[in-house]
What does this fold into?
Amino acid sequence: MSAALERLDAASQQALRLEAVRYGGEQIALYEFAAPDGGELAPFTAGSHVDVHLPNGVVRQYSLANNPSERSRYVLGVKCDRASRGGSRYMHESLRVGTMLQLSLPRNNFPLHEAAPHTVLIAGGIGITPIRCMVHRLEALGLPWELHYAVRHRSEAVFAEELGSDARVHLHVDEEHGGAPLDLARVAREAPTGAHAYCCGPAPMISAFETAFSFWPASMRHVEHFSAPSIVWQEGGAFSVLLARTQRKLEVPADRSILSVVREAGIDATASCEQGICGACETRVLGGQPEHRDMLLSAEERAAGKSMMICCSRSKSAELVLDL
Ligand code: FES
It folds into this structure.
């Protein structure tokens, strides 16, 4: 099964209890979830995230920061975003220890390539959460790694005490360098041959990473997006979708997503971010040619055309046949 189709299996939810909230850094809290009966949780791999279904109806994706060998808890790091639309602010202001929440099973769009001879980890701000998880895993495997962790202020550095004294950790505090960002071009130049590089952080850092590492093979540089560029629906034009399980045919107008049309037709389609960054809405394609607009599928997966994110992607052909 391809990595893309494996992700389709992670739509289920589990009811977990918020066991603890800890201070992570300025405006950052660490949330620890466990099974109410103390049982084992579904396993996860380094780079995974879960969808958190909040009581206010909002669904948000957060990366798992703890050691993947732990089966008793999920630890999420959440920064309170001043522009929050009900996700991080709600978590910071309204969630109380003991609250039961629905979380999806872990899903991994940012997997670690454990056969690499060296791993370069780059984190910006709260983007440290999946990277911290990767450090746990690389340590468990005894594999070489280096971490470049950029924050604007030292007070925002999460896990600083755990990571701070390790010579492989390079903390870059922007305000202590006159506001200058981390020199990613130097990191790209100095990395050992054969290394894989991973970057998670805000959009400007992802963009700088993609520029600095553009001379690396695409298969050896990996990014995790917090948010997607805005999607212009009108560019794709209208098309039809045939739902293979019921043989119903739906028309998708230029200004609507497949997801919204399918849901309006009464189909219970799974989705979460609705921005093409989480993978929750991934759907098998049985016919037609998708026009991929997500931030997840690899070039090979796009070319294969076997699945698509129906929240954002459209169609190059007049009709798509979907496994719905
Ligand atoms: Fe997240 Fe579609 S709902 S990728």
Notes: Helices lie at 3-6, 88-94, 128-141, 160-163, 184-190, 203-212, 258-264, 299-304. The CA atoms of residues 197 and 221 lie 5 Å apart. The radius of gyration is 20 Å. The chain has a mean pLDDT of 90.
